[in-house]
């Protein structure tokens, strides 16, 4: 009987189609020779068979090594690996040394992982591309079991009232299924031989997948510049769910690897990816702040067009502030059901601080050459509307119940102190260190000097005609004049 291993395999696909027959031929030949030898009727001695086995297995491993390098699909690796493992286990039962088969699989472990990660990257990109980033609405029990319960995305163990509005969008269960499939395929590939540390290997590769594929994909979404505020809010909420799911992924890997539960509960069992996802969630929060501030900037452009030398005090808030309030209300309404309260505070407080900074920036800019007390009174009306909104939303979001400091209203302290100073009857008290620290502690003296220098009540002089004002107004003007001189001396 002859064993011919001189196969001319030109392509990986050809090998994939013929590998079962090829490996079965090897196994069959030596199983038959072993049985013939045991009957003492064979033409070959045991040493001759062993020599043939060594030569044959060397040839087999050489062919396998070459073909593995040609394969460009992870499932092809896994398919061939199963038959190689079967060949090794079978021949070992008959006393043949098959360690070289294990070695060739071990050497291709990283290559298999690369291909598997590449497959997962394409799948996750597809999942992200198809997602509208709106909360999933689940109307059927089997949909809930498939998208929530089976993936342990909610702590409850019973189906809630349907339709069920999930706190995540469709890419979350989609990504979780891909990650779990990755774990299962990787454990399957590592099932050759006896690997004492298979869990550690799976955990290391899982960490890389979550960081280099899932997390990087989320960051690309966040920084794409093509998202609306509601979509970015949902992505931030999705990341929170995915970050918590890291524990579920570890449990799944541990179960498949046969790791005892007590070992997984040790501190070293965590994933670096969890901290990385947490950082990406912060990136999403910062992206929300940037996006919200960018939209607010559009509304603040209207501020420069108001009448800065109005003859009468306005009765209502300026148009720009109405637009700002409508937009901020939308941001809070969209973010509150999805974001953790700490994140909600960060986003809303960031937007309110930006409004405050923007108003002061307009006062400082060359676009405002001069302004009078009536314009300041109008800003005061705007600010009161904004402060009322801040107080109401701080209570309605539950942040006041946490004793959260500072509050939303505190984000407006700089523009509030500036407005109070410009409307004060004794503005020169700003130069008193004790009063300044108490009432104007957030104001920068250089900014105050620039702004006060633009403050006019009439076009013909610094304060207009004193005789045309009452005594209180005259006193305030004199005080402001003193403040201007002292601020110039300070500068």
From TrEMBL:
Organism: Avena sativa (Oat)
Name of the protein this chain belongs to: Uncharacterized protein
């Amino acid at each position: 009987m002859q064993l011919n291993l001189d196969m001319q395999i030109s392509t990986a696909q050809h090998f994939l189609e013929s590998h079962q027959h090829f490996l079965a031929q090897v196994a069959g030949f030596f199983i038959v020779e072993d049985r013939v030898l045991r009957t003492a009727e064979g033409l070959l001695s045991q040493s001759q068979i062993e020599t043939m086995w060594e030569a044959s297995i060397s040839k087999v491993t050489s062919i396998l090594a070459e073909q593995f390098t040609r394969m460009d699909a992870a499932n092809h690796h896994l398919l061939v690996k199963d038959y190689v493992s079967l060949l090794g286990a079978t021949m070992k039962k008959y006393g043949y040394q098959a360690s070289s088969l294990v070695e060739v699989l071990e050497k291709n472990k990283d290559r298999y992982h690369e291909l598997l990660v590449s497959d997962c990257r394409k799948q996750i990109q597809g999942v992200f591309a198809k997602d509208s980033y709106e909360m999933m609405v689940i109307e059927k029990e089997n949909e809930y079991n498939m998208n929530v319960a089976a993936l342990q995305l909610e702590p409850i163990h019973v189906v809630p009232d349907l339709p069920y509005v999930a706190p995540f969008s469709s890419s979350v269960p989609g990504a979780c299924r891909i990650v779990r499939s990755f774990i299962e395929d990787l454990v399957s590939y590592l099932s050759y031989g006896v690997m004492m540390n298979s869990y550690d290997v799976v955990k290391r590769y899982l960490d890389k997948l979550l960081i280099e594929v899932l997390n990087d994909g989320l960051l690309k979404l966040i920084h794409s510049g093509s998202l609306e505020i509601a979509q970015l809010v949902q992505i931030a909420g999705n990341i929170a769910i995915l970050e918590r799911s890291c524990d579920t992924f570890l449990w799944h890997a541990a179960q498949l690897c046969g790791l005892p539960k007590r070992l997984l509960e040790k501190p070293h069992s965590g994933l670096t990816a969890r901290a990385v996802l947490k950082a990406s969630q912060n990136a999403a929060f910062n992206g929300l702040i940037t996006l919200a501030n960018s939209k607010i900037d559009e509304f603040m452009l209207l501020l420069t067009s108001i009448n800065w030398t109005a003859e009468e005090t306005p009765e209502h808030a300026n148009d720009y502030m109405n637009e700002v309030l409508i937009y901020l209300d939308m941001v809070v309404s969209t973010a509150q059901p999805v974001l953790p309260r700490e994140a909600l505070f960060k986003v809303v407080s960031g937007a309110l601080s930006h409004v405050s900074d923007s108003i002061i920036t307009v006062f400082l800019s060359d676009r405002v050459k001069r302004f009078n007390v009536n314009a300041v009174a109008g800003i005061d009306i705007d600010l009161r509307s904004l402060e009322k909104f801040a107080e109401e939303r701080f209570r309605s979001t539950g942040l006041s119940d946490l004793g959260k400091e500072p509050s939303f209203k505190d984000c407006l302290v700089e523009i509030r102190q500036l407005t109070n100073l410009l409307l004060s009857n004794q503005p020169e008290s700003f130069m008193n260190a004790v009063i300044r620290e108490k009432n104007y502690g957030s104001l920068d003296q250089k900014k105050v000097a620039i702004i006060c220098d633009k403050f006019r009540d009439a076009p013909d002089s610094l304060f207009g005609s004193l005789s045309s004002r009452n005594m209180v107004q005259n006193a305030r003007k004199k005080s402001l004049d003193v403040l201007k001189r002292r601020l110039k001396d300070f500068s």
